[in-house]
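Worked example (supplementary).
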Amino acid sequence: MDAEREVLDVLARNAREDIDDIAAQTGLDADAVADAIDALEAKSVVHGYQAVVDWDRVDEGKIRAVVEINVELDRETGYEQVADRIAKFPAVDALHLVSGDYDFAVEVLGENMQDVSEFISEQVAPMPEVTQTVTHYIMETYKDGGIRFEDGDDDDRLSVSP
Amino acid sequence: MRLSDRARTLPESGIRKFFELAEARDDVISLGVGEPDFSAPWTARTAAIDSLERGKTSYTANRGMAALRERIADHHERYDQSYEPESEVLVTTGASEAVDLAFRALVDPGDTVAVHEPTYISYGPGIELAGGEQLTVPTRAADDFALTRESLEAAGAAEADLLVLCYPNNPTGATMTDEELAEVAAFCRDEDLRVVADEIYAALTYGTDHASIATQPGMRERTVVVNGFSKAYAMTGLRLGYALGPAEAIDAMNRIHQYTMLSAPTTPQYAAIEALDRCDDEVAEMVEEYNRRRRLVVSRFNEMGLDTFEPGGAFYAFPECGGDDEAFAEELLEAEGVAVVPGSVFGEGGEGHLRVSYATSMRELKAATDRIAAFVDGR
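After joint prediction of all chains, the assembly is encoded as:
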């Protein structure tokens, strides 16, 4: 495996690993790790570093919705142009072009349900290309970013065994 | 009740004391665990659940389900091992049963069994229960705990009838290359030793492929290979292992097994079939994660001045702590709440070392090694 891929595998699991620990885990030297991170960022492989948050456990947390959006394109307007306009809204957390019954799957983050529905009805639905939206509010998140949301540690192994 | 002499004289495992000390506290980070921190792959677990729902709760064939034995034989092609599923594979209740059966089938009262140490703690008692006598062959830190012809000769192993070989090794994490095994194989052929090769950690090797003594010239016919699902597939509690060997040895082991165990448990056999069919990728992910932890732990111990050779397999590092390893481990537990197992528990040659299991999360490993570094500094 090349150095960038090894570093990427570590960061994808835990973006808070410091350079020395990544070096220890991969067997690379610290400079090589730093170079790999710079290269991954320069090539836009790594776009940022975020915490995986269970908003249900935060006072005044946030609500998340998955919104299906159908659009109609014309000669001047392609998916790229529509995506660019939708992505500019800060409430849009993730935006994907998908195969199947609709065109875009949009993850929207808002303070509450009213906040999200106002955003969809007042900002997204009126866009000339948008023909239909279907909003699914997320009721409960069980796993996100590859991490299962559950309480603490359930290690029930014997503390010392042969 | 009057107990047999055999039971009365069987010693308590040295690991027991540390278990009790560690269990007495609730703030312990344990690097003393000899099993994976992962759970068995979910698809394997669902196969077990599904088999129960379909009412598959009867005995299987003594030797294990035919479909499982076929897959085990196929699986071992990757180690260049070739065995007939009908006659040369025996599914057992954990690799431990396979080791016990091998001793009972191969050892006569008074036979000498050579065991390299430090090693897993069950061989000595197993040999004793089979009526044999253990001859200890110490392996050396200078050889990275590989077994050498020189150590075998120095210990007088030429007189032995059987050799127990455990690589990748618990507790040292040592592995042996084909070249190193060739030397041991030549000794076994020259001195007419048979071999029980416990290869339970074969899937957990880092950077190289597992090498088996059974693939050395003239060794297949004198070797029983033991393996299982506990370590590679994180299925310790499901208790499923197996033995591979020449038909006459497997047949003899099966004759004992049919009276003492009848058959290995049925539910885990369904899980094992699924594990062999579909879980290579998950095993590869676990191996990658162990490898990252291995490198971190080894580099941290070397940084804190406890010399640690680079272990090629299993999930243990074996740092040198110098002097009295039991006192070191007890004081470390007392002062910093970190549990490790003193190397001397695993026999001669383990003194002055600690067995450090990295089958625990990266976060705990970092916290534990920070605490150990503080302990070493203050000493």
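Two points are worth noting when inspecting this output. The helical segments of chain A are 3-13, 19-26, 30-42, 79-87, 113-124. Chain A has two domains: 3-42, 55-144.
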